[in-house]
Amino acid sequence: MSHDRDDERLARVALCRLTEPGDPRLTGLVSQLGAVRVHDHLANERDLDGMLSDVASRLAGLEPQRELEQATRLGIRFVMPGDDEWPVQLGDLDHCGHVQERGGAPVGLWVKGPLRLDQQQDSVAVVGARSATTYGSDVASAIAAEVAAAGLCVVSGAAFGIDIAAHRGALAARGSTIAVLACGVDRVYPAAHRQLLEHLARHGAVVSELAPGSAPTRHRFLARNRVIAALARGTVVVEAAVRSGALNTANWTDRLSRRLMGVPGPVTSAPSAGVHQLIRTGAASLVTCGAEVLEQLGAAGDHALAEPRAAPRVRDQLRRRDAQVLDAVPVSSPAQADSIARAAGVGLVDTQAALGRLERGGFAVQAVGGWLLGPTGRT
Predict the structure, then answer these.
(1) Is 252 helix (H, G, I), strand (E, B) or coil?
(2) Could you tell me if residue 142 is inside a domain?
(3) Distance (Å, rounded) from C-alpha 121 to C-alpha 93?
(4) 54: domain range?
């Protein structure tokens, strides 16, 4: 590795410690000037966009080389722009503005787990309510399993509710899944999901902008959401109330011009009210299963779905005139041909010919006193 790349990596590791993830002052400056120049300016007490008073005094106490070494011992790697593993789609975050004072591509990502981020560009985010219903969890799991089985990586946030259902669905299908955290990748949050996170650290990937040891906070979840949206080609929202954090991820997906999809719930369900609003306004496409998600994300003609149709009945194959006559044949009280002709609005000769054909097909039978529906005509 060149000295320039070494310097860039150390500068980015240090800058990750200085501000909250997604701070647009830092991400913007790093995008414009490069991490080394931003770091050097601050280290030499040169103010940049009002940051000096906030963070520069902390630079002296940071030891980025030691932090990288400690991370390596824990099986954690730091991935930055220009690395082979860097997911280049994150660069779109530099061009889609800010949401709630957060924005820009990450300065770098801490990753734990064997899954390489650059090999997961065919991915879909599945997000939603923490207080998910059984319906929502089941649908999220089924969608994640179907798209994972088709080779897409499932990205979510490892939270309660829809997130954990999505990860489990992908794993059940023996697919790939990435958890993006609002804390350090060495921390287990929520604690109840220790088994999942440890499994992903061994077989998938756990990702965060935050350096190891960092604790989760509300604003860090909001910053985390933009990374989830940017890693994926599209986002599926399964259950989100009108103030759900999942709608923040949906907002980022829309700003990134990625596919936004929503799963409808019962119209009386508060946990689905936010999703319904996305669908009603046209912001999100309605999806109900993994096959529909694949159709949305695939190229034109890929994963095309057949229109759902009811199973055909035998009488669907009848000629129009024969079907018209059959509709006039009684079920229980026999009727003469002339009575059937009047009821069907068909001439007597044509009615008699039609009844003959219907009789041969088992649709109508002659009985004492006239004609009745046959066994085939009753199905």
Answers:
(1) helix
(2) yes
(3) 15
(4) 1-70
- Judge contact between 184 and 208, C-beta under 8 A: yes
Rg (alpha carbons) of the chain, rounded to whole number: 31
Give the SS3 label for residue 365. strand
Amino acid residing at 24: P
Mapped onto helix, strand or coil, the DSSP state of residue 173 is coil
Q: Does the N-terminal peptide bond of residue 190 adopt cis geometry, omega within 30 degrees of 0?
A: yes
Cα 204–chain centre separation: 18
Q: pLDDT (tens digit, 0 to 9) for every residue of the chain, 379 residues total?
A: 455 888 899 989 988 888 889 989 889 988 988 888 888 777 776 555 555 555 556 776 678 899 999 999 999 999 999 999 999 999 999 999 998 889 999 999 999 999 999 999 899 999 999 999 999 999 999 999 999 999 999 999 999 999 999 999 999 999 999 999 999 999 999 999 999 999 999 999 999 999 999 999 988 999 999 999 999 999 999 999 988 889 999 999 999 999 999 999 999 999 999 999 999 999 999 999 999 999 999 855 565 666 677 677 788 889 899 999 999 999 989 999 999 999 999 999 999 999 999 999 999 999 888 999 988 887 7
- Same-domain check for residues 195 and 120: yes
Residue 98 shares a structural domain with residue 38: no
User: Which of 33, 50, 70 finishes a domain?
Assistant: 70
